[in-house]
Amino acid sequence: LGPPSNTRFLSLSRSLFPLKGSHGHLSTAETSLLALLPFDPHLLFQMGHILLRDSDLDLSFNSRSSCSDSDRTSVSSSRSSVSLSDIRHSSAGIRQGHHRNDPLWSPIKSVTLQDGGVDIRHLELIRQLGSGDVGRVFLCNLKGFEQAKYALKVIDREALALRNKHKVPHVQIESQLLSTFDHPFLPTLYSKFEFRHYTCFLMDYCSGGDLHGLLKRQPGSRFEPCDVRFFAAEVLIALEYLHSRGIVYRDLKPENVLRREDGHVMLTDFDLCFLSDVDPKLLSPAMANRGTSTGCFSHWQRPKPGGMPEFVAEPSSSSRACVGTHEYLAPEIISGKGHGSGVDWWAFGVFLYEMLYGCTPFKGGSKEETLRNIMSKPLKFPAGSSDRPDLTAANDLIRRLLVKDPRKRLGCCKGAAEVKNHTFFDKIQWPLIRSCSPPRFDGNGRRRRHVIVVRKGRKGIVRGGWSWKKLYSWLASRRRRERRRA
């Protein structure tokens, strides 16, 4: 079969034996047909699976991203094989930073030493993870390294330029940012390569999914305040890092906060960011004196006068672009008068509200009504929330973040340092947050409750929210009961 017939043969096989399911595996019949072709069928399938036309989604003002597969289409090509000249990769030049000891780098280094870099020939696709307005994301591994799982983001530059020309710069910004990140709560870019008019990013795979999916599986679609505090603290540190580098995120929402295998978070999707100059400042003392606990949660004391000054670096430029998810848009974005990093602190307040109460505070019956509510409707909390002492600090933080005037909004003056000093985060030791044990959830997304097992003659082990004082009190009462029985 010559090259022109290859395309017709592949199209015929696709029509007679369509792929089934969402895991992207070839049927036995289709594999047999493709085996007759003069090129690697597995490679062709991968390229056909990746190079799908993106669904025409406009998620800029869509509150929920789509994770469903679009209809698969065949790929027509005048070539019968993949030319190495079509592939440009840059894995060798990517910085490893604090992730240099990550075991996922070992397969990358091995392939790079052998072939000069990672490209489409080295990848084995497993299934599609999601899709959006700029591309698709697949779960994959390197051939020969089945235990090392990665996420592959694929962007069709030609289709994007034809359909959404205004989003091409967004892709370029995301590509630029991913190659420079060096932070535990941001993605690691293991490799970037281009094939014809496709750009591919090989990044971390977060097996825990996103916080939105986890939130919807909780009772009442809401997290416990202690879990919200943990997730919010790590997101806050990630925002602090972005702002210190002049990056305004503009796309914070539970769908874009992923959970790694170890339970810690990772922000994703940076195509809506804008880059700004940074105005570093050295502010008067505001840092709290911490207790002597060795954990990341400890007793907190009010700041004492004469402490060390704080270093604050926040973006100083503004933008007039109207981008983001409509339920998370700040009033200054809607008004079009220009916005800066304060939009991230507004979104952080909406993010806290949704995790605590299962909905966003200004959601209306339509997008237009939601935008009107954001501009004019006062903030309200669900009935009964004011009667819960564990929500008092959280509600106060949300109230200070969701101030419609950015000049009076918490975080717009002193940045993340101002937010971190709020009483909601009193028990957190910020330098040790990465060592803190994350909330644990079972396979159904339900919160795991820690059980303390006490054996006679031994001290119990405290896990979760228990304190040593409570444990010793419980043990003492147990001994008293045993003595009375004796």
UniProtKB/TrEMBL annotation:
Gene3D superfamilies: Phosphorylase Kinase, domain 1, Transferase(Phosphotransferase) domain 1
Domain Protein kinase: from-to ranges: 123-425
Enzyme class: transferase
Compositionally biased region (Low complexity): 65-85
CDD domains: STKc_phototropin_like
Leader sequence residues: none
Keyword annotations from UniProtKB, A to Z: ATP-binding, Kinase, Nucleotide-binding, Serine/threonine-protein kinase, Transferase
InterPro entries: Kinase-like_dom_sf (IPR011009), Prot_kinase_dom (IPR000719)
E.C. designation(s): 2.7.11.1
Pfam family, one: Pkinase
Region (Disordered): 65-101
GO molecular function: ATP binding; protein serine/threonine kinase activity
Reactions it catalyzes: L-seryl-[protein] + ATP = O-phospho-L-seryl-[protein] + ADP + H(+); L-threonyl-[protein] + ATP = O-phospho-L-threonyl-[protein] + ADP + H(+)
Protein family: Belongs to the protein kinase superfamily. AGC Ser/Thr protein kinase family.
Protein name, per record: non-specific serine/threonine protein kinase
Organism (species): Nymphaea colorata (pocket water lily)
